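hey
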């Protein structure tokens, strides 16, 4: 039995949900696609001018392009407090659980977008308490949080004066 099912999601149109209780560290679904050389991904216009949402680094020679309908794992949404991670095992990518997941929970992982001037193009609707409002990898979120804090201080100062 599959560990997931496709359902309407509050984060995006659709998402994957746990179809039964899943233990921490379980391989849930393979992230499948086409293995392409770095050269190919650098030259292909398809990967220009947008975040590499479906493009994963496999090693220093190859990437995996998961932008295909048959890649069900591409429906998994980003969350600021994800319950899954994507990890490479040789030339395969697996979505695995970071913790125990209850039946009916939406599956999510950190899309790992870097922080740059375009970050506002990718709002996050994960709804988690720690959501920073944008899809930015966890290691870079402090940059946004700092910004939020700064703005908050500005508002506070304004009212105090
Ligand atoms: Zn979020």
């Amino acid at each position: 039995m599959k560990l997931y099912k496709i359902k309407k999601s509050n984060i995006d149109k659709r998402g994957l949900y746990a179809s039964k209780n899943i233990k921490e560290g379980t391989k849930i679904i393979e992230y499948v696609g086409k293995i392409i050389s770095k050269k190919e991904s650098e030259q292909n216009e398809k990967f220009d001018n947008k975040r590499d949402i479906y493009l994963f680094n496999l090693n220093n020679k190859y990437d995996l392009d998961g932008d295909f309908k048959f890649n069900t794992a591409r429906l998994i949404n980003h969350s600021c407090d994800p319950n899954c991670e994507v990890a490479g095992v040789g030339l395969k990518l697996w979505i695995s659980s970071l913790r125990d997941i209850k039946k009916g929970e939406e599956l999510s992982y950190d899309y790992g977008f870097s922080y740059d001037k375009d970050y506002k193009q990718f709002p996050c609707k994960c709804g988690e308490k720690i959501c920073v409002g944008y899809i930015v990898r966890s290691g870079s979120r402090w940059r946004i949080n700092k910004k939020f804090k700064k703005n908050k201080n500005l508002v506070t100062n304004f009212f105090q004066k």
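The chain has two helices and ten strands. Strands lie at 4-8, 14-18, 27-31, 34-37, 55-57, 62-65, 77-78, 84-89, 92-97, 108-109.
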